[in-house]
């Protein structure tokens, strides 16, 4: 019996066909199908594209090549990254205390009012250093940026928070990230880039006992340099940096009793946060570090007044 693969199987059935004929036809079709699948698996284009039909029938799955930037993107944006940022409220606790109803100068407080001020302040004081360090993560530029940011932060409380988180990030790089990178020659990370960060760490340790240290290890320049070394793009770096600030701020608001965890996730996922971060990145994209500085002066007042609060649960 002649078999036409393109013929409707229902119309091809005839009353005169016996059960043996139908069984033979099924066996022949299954044999041809198996042969076609085997041929498809051997085709080079099929192996490269990872066709779903061939992969589902084959026990061997195509291996994905490791993607270093994507991997570190997840690590650096993880809330579990031990920077110690959740020990700081970034002025929120002081804002709430000074905005108590008994205060005639600031009778109303809300997170919705504080969030844009905080993001704008944080972006104007730190993001130019992040972007500059990412564009040039060399040791000389990193030391220069660290010194410039140390001079640009007027508030002692803010400087202490920046250094504490920066040294925590440097410790993460030295003890974890640098030891987990692929061998030299197998990734985009060069020996010079690794050497610059190692040398910067030695500068920080060597100057820790000095009255005027060789390097303070502020968070912003270090974050930009490390993101550049592991292959994150400039835009990814800026977004992760500002979003990390928002996450820490929202976490502080939850612990301060302003709202619950579900509202916190709603805020983080909302368009307002996305638009604020995007707007700040656009605003500071070409800002030189010489022009970086506080654009919300009252933030320094809230930071500075934090230490004189009668009771507090955060470091700043």
Automatic annotation (TrEMBL):
InterPro entries: UreF, UreF_sf
Residue ranges of the region described as Disordered: 1-23, 36-63
Presence of keyword Chaperone: yes
Alphabetically ordered keywords of this record: Chaperone, Nickel insertion
Ranges in a coiled coil: none
Superkingdom of the organism of origin: Eukaryota
Keyword Chaperone: yes
Record Pfam families: UreF
Family: Belongs to the UreF family.
Protein name, entry field: Urease accessory protein UreF-like
Originating organism: Podospora pseudopauciseta
């Amino acid at each position: 019996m002649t078999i036409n693969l393109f013929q409707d199987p229902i119309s091809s059935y005839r009353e005169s066909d016996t059960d043996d004929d139908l069984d033979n036809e099924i066996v022949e079709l299954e044999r041809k199908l198996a042969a076609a699948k085997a041929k498809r698996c051997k085709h080079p284009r099929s192996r490269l594209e990872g066709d779903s039909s061939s992969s589902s029938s084959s026990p061997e799955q195509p291996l994905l090549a490791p993607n270093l930037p994507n991997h570190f993107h997840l690590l650096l944006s993880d809330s579990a990254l031990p920077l110690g940022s959740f020990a700081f409220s970034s002025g929120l606790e002081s804002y709430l205390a000074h905005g108590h109803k008994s205060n005639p100068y600031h009778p109303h407080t809300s997170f919705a009012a504080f969030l844009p001020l905080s993001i704008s302040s944080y972006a104007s004081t730190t993001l130019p250093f992040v972007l500059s360090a990412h564009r040039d993560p060399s040791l000389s530029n990193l030391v220069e940026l660290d010194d410039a940011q140390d001079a640009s932060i007027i508030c002692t409380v803010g400087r202490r928070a920046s250094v504490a988180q920066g040294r925590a990030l440097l410790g993460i790089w030295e003890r974890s990230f640098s030891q987990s990178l692929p061998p030299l020659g197998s990734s985009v990370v060069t020996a010079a880039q690794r050497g610059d960060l190692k040398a910067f760490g030695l500068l920080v340790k060597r100057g820790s006992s000095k009255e005027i240290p060789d390097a303070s290890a502020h968070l912003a320049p270090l974050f930009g340099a490390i993101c550049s070394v592991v292959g994150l793009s400039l835009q990814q770096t800026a977004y992760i940096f500002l979003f990390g600030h928002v996450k820490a701020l929202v976490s502080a608001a939850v612990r301060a009793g302003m709202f619950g965890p579900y509202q916190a996730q709603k805020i983080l996922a909302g368009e307002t946060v996305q638009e604020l971060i995007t707007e700040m990145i656009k605003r500071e994209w070409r800002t030189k570090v010489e022009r970086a500085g506080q654009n919300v002066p009252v933030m320094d007042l809230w930071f500075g007044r934090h230490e004189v609060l009668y009771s507090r649960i955060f470091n700043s």
